[in-house]
Specification:
There is one protein chain. With 456 residues, the protein is an alpha/beta fold. It has 14 helices and 15 strands. The strands form two sheets. Strands 6, 7, 8, 9, 10, 11, 12, 13, 14 and 15 form a ten-stranded mixed sheet that branches. Strands 2-1-3-4-5 form a five-stranded parallel sheet. Helix 1 links the parallel strand 1 and strand 2. It is globular, with a radius of gyration of 24 Å.
Length: 456
């Protein structure tokens, strides 16, 4: 094989984050998951990230309304044997579309790039033509620095403005406090009833498939839910597909956090339908919240690698293999691995999660998230799991707080540039407590993790 044929990454997308770019990758997730990809975003005010050597095709999409061709990294990519696939742009001379690079409208760019990935002779011809041009012509340099500076200035002004407390914000804080107090009261009542009926506030009924007792799992997938049974079967099917031939031996642990609808019955029927697959249902007699449900799932899981997957979210068939392959060879300071996840709701793609590479600065700014991640059980246990409200962390902030603990102790998570799944967001009409009075929640986070480099 020639040097051009031996590409390690089929399609890459490495750029600063923007809503438009996130929606682009989210819309293309169903196509990209089965390719070898390198999808990485970085913050505008953070260090730039270069393409990995051995990339076959590099996608370029405008950040916003601008139409100028993005010259950043183009020359190095061409020299390395990579073909640039750009959204329709201006200012690309002396490059010629179709000769030196691929150009297509936003809606069709991924389809055109995939067609090129299938056609290696055509791709190799473009590589040669572009290299010959680079050898004889000086290419323009990126002009994106000034726009990044402007974006950073706008970001700082926006952050400063939102930090000011108004009368409306104080009202929201008071409302949130009242709602959380009512939630604590409701959970306390459920726990008391559980003690009366079962002698234990953490009582749970266990249901397993016939293959559960003797199965030796390499990966456990924990699915916590509270009134989320409507999409549970879809989630379970995706896990089974990802645990097929060539994948790690996989089991499923469903934790019903005392749903008030028919979700427990749905879960029992799902287990009956997949009796041939190792699975367990942990049906709690009292609700403890998302953090408690995840921790209960981890306690029931038997593998050394554990994934949490919300009911209604799904993973692609290659997800477990890619994540576990990375963790098995990762250094000891790595607690978890995560990849790119499409966020969606009933309206369609919303954007991305897990698209930023691990870095403490975007983490403390609340920009880095991982809706789907695989954890090393041994390292995870050193952090005592997800912190619950009883430990001073609000519902919805437990995962963020855990990752702050990881960073504060000098450990880390690792990012793979692959699309690994889809995360279902609740309907827009449902306001998540995490999204109410975010400023006060960050104050709590800063107080709990004072050694981190919080922004001023």
């Amino acid at each position: 094989m020639t040097e051009i044929d031996q590409r390690h990454v089929d399609i890459a997308f490495v750029a600063t984050a923007s809503q438009r770019r996130e929606r682009f990758i989210a819309s293309a997730a169903a196509i990209l998951w089965e390719w070898s990809t390198d999808v990485r975003f970085f913050a505008c005010d953070g260090p730039a990230i270069e393409l990995r050597s051995g990339t076959r095709i590099a996608l370029k999409v405008h950040r916003g309304d601008e139409t100028k061709f993005d010259w950043s990294g183009v020359r190095d990519a061409i020299v390395d044997g990579c073909v640039i696939a750009s959204e329709t742009a201006t200012g690309f001379a002396p490059l010629v579309p179709g000769v030196h690079f691929l150009m297509a409208p936003y809606e069709y760019l991924v389809a055109e790039a995939v067609a090129l990935a299938f056609d290696e002779p055509r791709r190799a011809t473009m590589v040669k033509a572009a290299r010959d041009l680079v050898a004889s012509t000086e290419l323009p340099v990126s002009s994106s620095v000034s726009s990044s500076v402007v974006h950073r200035a706008r970001h700082r002004r926006s952050t400063s403005a939102t930090a000011r407390r108004t009368d409306l914000e104080r009202m929201v804080t008071e409302l949130k406090t009242a709602i959380l107090a009512e939630l604590r009261m409701s959970r306390s009542i459920e726990a008391t009833i559980s003690v009366v009926e079962h002698g234990n506030r953490d009582h749970a009924d266990l249901v397993t498939t016939s293959t559960w007792p003797s199965f030796d799992a390499e990966v456990s997938v924990v699915v916590p839910m509270h009134n989320g049974g409507g999409h549970l079967a879809e989630t379970v099917r995706s896990v089974i597909a990802a645990g097929g031939a060539g994948a790690p031996r996989t089991e499923i642990v469903i934790v019903d956090d005392h749903s008030t609808d028919a979700s427990r019955g749905v879960a029992e029927r799902v287990l009956a339908d997949i009796d041939w697959f190792p699975a367990m249902l942990v049906a709690r007699a009292a609700s403890g919240g998302p953090a408690v449900a995840r921790n209960v799932g981890f306690a029931a899981a038997r593998a050394s690698l554990v994934v949490t997957l919300d009911a209604g979210s799904t993973i692609y068939p290659t997800a477990l293999r890619r994540l576990s392959d990375l963790l098995r060879t990762a250094p000891d300071d790595v607690v978890a691995a995560y990849g790119v996840v499409e966020r969606f709701d009933v309206t369609g793609p919303l954007g991305l999660g897990g698209h930023l590479v691990w870095d403490v600065e975007p983490l403390v700014r609340g920009e880095l998230s991982a809706p789907i991640a695989m954890y090393r059980r041994r390292q995870w246990s050193e952090f005592d799991g997800w912190p619950s409200p009883e430990r001073g962390v609000e519902d919805g902030w437990d995962e963020y707080d855990l990752w702050l603990s990881v960073a504060e102790r000098g450990a880390r998570a690792v990012h793979i540039g692959s699309v690994i799944g889809r995360h279902r967001e609740p309907p827009a009409a449902i306001v998540k407590m995490r999204d109410v009075d975010i400023a006060s929640s960050f104050v709590i986070a800063r107080e709990r993790h004072q050694r981190l480099p919080w922004p001023s």
